[in-house]
Design goal:
Actin-binding Protein, T-fimbrin, domain 1; CH_dom; Kinesin; rod-shaped; ATP hydrolysis activity
Length: 794
């Protein structure tokens, strides 16, 4: 009878509570409240510690490391710490932060700062920037008394998560995972598709009161059932609060199996107790009451079990619906992707067709361009042929104008001279000289030349007839222009110009070089020209370099038939690029030239000077090399010693000048008579002009005469010499042209000669070694004679 109360006290709540106690998960209302407070404090401490580390302990002096909820709210109320942390994580997010002065930091009795607008502006700017980044925001009223500080903590921890994501490189999209609990409070529990579990999670974080976390499956129970099942729901929530979503089904199955097992054990115990009571003679009424209690208890227990089973079934159904929705969404996404793939295929086909069309048009354009280029190449080749024929015809015309062209120029009277002129008349190609006779009658002698210039002729008119020869130099021909006449007749004036030279008084040398550079510039598209200059003089039968700057006049040799066209290879060869460069070099040469004063000329040239311009051109089309050379020679004047009144060194100079001019006359006479031997080597002057006089160049001679009557003898002698020169037949000038094949063959011959020389030197060394070895083996003559003597004695 003592066990009857125990039988009547059997209930489902006791069974479930015993099972939960066996798992060690029974929690009271007080424990849950304490746990929520600890979790909120841990989250608040974590947020405060991160803010202090981010903005610095000085800037966060108003925020303790472990603040209370009131201290946390007051520390962040002015917005400075929040804006500073956001700018550290995302620089420039809050461009303007209002900083309170020392006076503003004084707190009133209720804890508010003196300037409410300042911290409100900071908080507002922080919330706007946080919303743009995507952080969970709070309201400004949450920082006031009675506000929800949990939302502020949540926003700060989300900012910390965003900062950690940026420090890790910021790869992939950033998304805040929600109100996560700090590591110190254990794992949080939440399930997407289960409303009771979501409410349980929110309840643990302090956002939803715990009383709202009931299960909807028990809504059909009456108020007494709700009050009875309330501790059960609290126990179930406490068990599920630290479990992951994937652990819930297994946990429920385990709990249900243990509940069924416990119920069966207790039913068996009750049945055994009832049987024992019946055997001991218990009356039927008590037995009936016990049976009724058992029967009433069993449906209640089964009802509680069914409630738990309904929760699990609802959860499973929700999971299936969620899976179905996910599958439907994936199917829609798959259909959209298939549609996009079809569109991409259509775009690919269109693009491929467009590319094929562009390729076809490109091929057509290339073919059309090829035909145009072919026609241009054909026209260019024709142009080069016409240009070549033009050069040939031009030089043939120059050859047909005569052999050695002779131009005569009459010097005007010098200031102070008033004697009658010996020049009777001047035509375009002839000049008449008046000669006095012994009988007192005047005689007249006429001389014919290619051109005659009177005393009034300008430098420009003289050069105008000389200009066609400059083009021949660029075409690969040698040209020689020299001045002849007695001393003081104006040779240097014609070739170089006066001492104080102007642009109008420039001589043939300057004008020829200027025209040479001008033509080279005009042909720049077809030819590339390299121009270099030499300037030498023949003084007392010695060749001297006029372009030396060290003052040393070493002896130079003349070498004819040089392959590179340099007759004086040891003289200075200076490359020039403009007329100004040549003028500077000529000024240097004129200063170095030997001049002296005589009775006939105060600046008489005591040497023959020669300015040589070397031109090498390369045809850009065929690669052909053209070499041309232009000699501009200013001869020293012939003079009579009795008239020039020279003595000493000047007498020696005059003798050498007359000797070289006499040798030039002998060469001209031999050429005019077509002798087999021409005495070029009788003088350095004739040796230097051998290429020009021997048919290798186009030659022009300026003959100069003086109009004074006392110089009529020298005038007649000079004009007779010039007439002999005009009768010399040089033949056609030779073109100095070297094609690409000829140049390659010459280079190959040079390489073979060098290889042969190396081989010959090696063979000579071998022969020398063999002869030395042979001499070492042969007996000496003395020893041989001794042996022979001995034999004879025997």
């Amino acid at each position: 009878m003592a066990e009857a109360p125990a039988i009547l006290s059997l209930s489902a709540a006791a069974v479930v509570e015993d099972v939960l106690r066996q798992h060690g998960c029974r929690l009271s209302d007080r424990d849950l409240a304490s746990r929520r407070a600890e979790e909120a404090a841990a989250r608040r401490n974590e947020a405060a510690g991160w803010l202090r580390r981010t903005v610095g302990a000085v800037a966060a002096r108003d925020l303790p490391e472990e603040p209370s909820e009131e201290e946390f709210r007051l520390g962040l109320r002015n917005g400075q710490i929040l804006c500073g942390a956001l700018n550290r994580v995302h620089p420039g997010a809050v461009p303007k932060v209002v900083v309170n002065t020392a006076a503003d930091s004084v707190l009133q009795a209720d804890g508010a700062a003196l300037s409410a607008f300042q911290y409100f502006e900071n908080v507002r700017n922080f919330l706007v920037a946080a919303q743009e980044i995507g952080l969970p925001c709070f309201e400004a009223s949450d920082l006031e008394q009675g506000g929800k500080s949990a939302r502020v903590v949540n926003c700060v921890l989300a900012l910390k998560s965003y900062g950690d994501w940026k420090q890790c490189g910021g790869t992939g999209p950033w998304k805040y995972g929600g109100n996560l609990k700090p590591t110190a409070s254990g794992k949080s529990f939440g399930r997407k598709n289960s409303e009771p579990f979501r409410r349980s999670q929110s309840m643990n974080e302090g956002e939803v009161p715990y009383e709202e976390a009931g299960f909807n499956a028990d809504a059909h129970l009456d108020s007494s059932d709700m009050s009875t099942s309330r501790p059960l729901k609290m126990l179930v929530s406490a068990v599920l609060s630290d479990k992951r979503p994937d652990e819930v089904p297994q946990l429920l199955e385990s709990m249900l199996s243990k509940l069924v097992e416990e119920f069966e054990n207790r039913l068996n115990n009750q049945n055994e107790l009832v049987k024992a009571a019946l055997k001991n003679g218990t009356d039927s009424t008590k037995s009936f009451s016990k049976s009724k209690v058992l029967v009433e208890t069993t449906p209640n227990t089964i009802g509680r079990k069914m409630d738990t089973t309904d929760i699990y079934c609802n959860h499973k159904q929700t999971k299936k619906e969620t899976s179905r929705e996910v599958a439907l969404k994936q199917h829609l996404i798959l259909q959209q992707q298939s549609k996009n793939v079809e569109e991409l295929k259509a775009d690919l086909i269109t693009t491929k067709a467009g590319m094929e069309y562009m390729q076809m048009k490109y091929s057509e354009d290339i073919n059309l361009l090829g035909r145009h280029l072919f026609s241009l190449a054909h026209a260019a080749s024709g142009y080069h042929k016409v240009l070549e024929e033009n050069r040939k015809l031009y030089n043939q015309v120059q050859d047909l104008k005569g052999n050695i062209r002779v131009y005569c120029r009459v010097r005007p009277f010098l200031p102070g001279q008033g004697s009658p002129s010996t020049v009777g008349s001047i035509d375009e190609g002839s000049i008449t000289i008046v000669t006095p006779s012994k009988s007192g009658k005047e005689g007249r002698k006429t001389f014919s030349f290619n051109k005659v210039f009177g005393p009034s002729a300008t430098q420009d008119e003289v050069f105008l007839d000389t200009q066609p020869l400059i083009r021949s130099v660029l075409d690969g021909y040698n040209v020689c222009i020299f001045a002849y006449g007695q001393t003081g007749s104006g040779k240097t004036y014609t070739m170089s110009g006066p001492k104080n030279m102007t642009e109008q008084t420039q001589g043939v040398n300057y004008r020829a070089l200027g025209d040479l550079f001008k033509l080279a510039e005009q042909r720049r598209g077809a030819f590339i020209y390299d121009i270099a200059v030499q300037m030498i003089e023949i003084y007392n039968e010695q060749v001297r370099d006029l372009l030396v700057t060290d003052g040393l006049n070493k002896r130079l040799e003349i070498r004819n038939n040089s392959q590179n066209g340099l007759n004086v290879p040891d003289a200075s060869l200076v490359r020039v690029a403009s007329t100004m460069d040549v003028m500077e070099l000529m000024n240097v040469g004129q200063k170095n030239r030997a001049v002296g004063a005589t009775a006939l000329n105060d600046r008489s040239s005591r040497s023959h000077s020669c300015l040589t311009v070397h031109v090498q051109g390369r045809d850009l089309t065929s690669g052909t090399i053209l070499r041309g050379c232009m000699h501009l020679v200013d001869l020293a004047g012939s003079e009579r010693v009795d008239k020039s009144e020279v003595t000493g060194e000047r007498l020696k100079e005059a003798q050498h000048i007359n000797k070289s001019l006499s040798a030039l006359g002998d060469v001209i006479a031999s050429l005019a008579q077509k002798n087999a031997h021409v005495p070029y080597r009788n003088s350095k002057l004739t040796q230097l002009l051998q290429d020009s006089l021997g048919g290798q160049a186009k030659t022009l001679m300026f003959v100069h005469i003086s109009p004074e009557s006392d110089a009529v003898g020298e005038t007649i002698s000079t004009l007779k010499f010039a007439e002999r020169v005009s009768t010399v037949e040089l033949g056609a000038a030779r073109l100095n042209k070297e094609s690409g094949e000829v140049r390659e063959l010459k280079e190959q011959i040079a390489r073979l000669k060098s290889a042969l020389a190396v081989k010959d030197s090696g063979s000579e060394q071998v022969m020398n070694r063999d002869s030395e070895a042979f001499n070492m083996k042969m007996p000496s003559p003395g020893f041989s004679n001794k042996r022979q003597g001995c034999c004879e004695q025997q």
